Amino acid sequence: NNSLLLSYSPVWAHSEERPEAAQPVISPESIPTMEELYLTGLHLEQYRHATFEPETYYLEGLRRDPEDSRINTAYGLLLLRRGLFSESEKHFRKAIERITWKNPNPYNSEPFYYLGVCLFFQERYSEAYDAFFKATWSNAEQEMSFFYLAKIATRKKNYSEALDFVNRSLIKNSHNMLARDLKAIILGKLNLKQEALSCLSENLEIDPFDYLSLFEKSRLD
């Protein structure tokens, strides 16, 4: 039998030019524009640079323009991640002042969302509610803003309102497991046991290791 069983054609590698080596960032004072200061800070945060601090670039930007919305938001978020809630709040409010200078409903509502987060963790829930509601103006912030609104409504035992909010959050991302868990809990609070169990079963199909769903399911079964 002369049937061909295997064939091979070598692929010759072509030498390609090496990419340029990364260039070290320059000092904040030497960077000419606000945009480059902002982007340098983001770059350093993204790559968790070992020898340069993003904070110095944000602070140089704020020295030049204390109300710059992008840098106030970025620096506020840096402080928020460090757990410095009251300090970060000041920068989000500064950013909001600038972005609402001409337009009460700005294109980008990111500072409203992060303001809501830092107020939430300060347990100032009424103020956080207003900030999150405002943040839902723009598409990008709707998923998490509605999720936090659902959490606040749940704390207040306004379960019907909470269910509406969490459903809106899940429209934006149906695989947000924390939102799915919260929905199941809310359904249980509304005495909708079968709907809650169905929701929990769906959660565990998506993520069999979702411990919140496992706990809630064992409680309701």
Question: What this model shows, in words?
Answer:
The longest helix is centred in the middle third of the chain and has 15 residues, at 85-99. The chain contains eleven helices and no strands. It has helices at residues 34-46, 54-64, 69-81, 85-99, 110-120, 125-135, 142-155, 159-172, 177-189, 193-206, 211-220. The radius of gyration is 24 Å and the shape is flat. The model has no long low-confidence stretch (mean pLDDT 94). Helices cover 63% and strands 0% of the residues.
Features:
mainly alpha; about 220 residues; about 65% helix; single chain
Number of alpha- plus pi-helical segments = 11
Total DSSP E strands: 0
β-strand amount: under 5%
**Distance, first to last CA:** 66 Å
Principal-axis shape: flat
Q: Sketch the topology as an H/E string, one letter per element.
A: HHHHHHHHHHH
Q: What is the percent of helical residues?
A: 55-70%
Low-confidence stretches: none
**Which assembly state applies to the chains in this document?**
single chain
- Return the average pLDDT rounded to an integer: 94
Structural class by secondary-structure content: mainly alpha
Radius of gyration: 24 Å
Main beta sheet, described?
A: none
What would a concise description of this structure say?
The chain has 221 residues and is an all-alpha fold. It contains eleven helices and no strands. The chain is flat.
